[in-house]
Model the fold of this input.
Amino acid sequence: MVKNIEMDEKVSLSNQLQQDVNGGVVLLITYTVNPEDEDKFIKTWSSAAEISKKTSGVMSAQLHRGIAGSRVFMSTHVFESAEAIKQQYKNPDFPSKIAEYPASTVTSTHVFKKIAIPGICED
Done:
């Protein structure tokens, strides 16, 4: 079973998903996986991303891998709203897919909203 650790001990993912946020949000998930489970992890993540892409409000998904032999992966999913994230989790196919991740998988999930910094990044 996947072990989930809150990214922010003061604000849970559940609390974030109760927040009414205008505009797009990014769901960032880090995964730590034992080396022998990496192929199964990538295959399962790909299947879960296919389900996610079919959810209304999903704009993009991307998987990243740590370099230099790192066991850490990171995925970013851009959604139109926090409500769209909740809808993904309500899809009956999605929770069963999460159960397919290797037992060594440790995740940390958090929702972010882009901020604008003049001259550097736009909102």
Remarks:
- The chain has four helices and five strands.
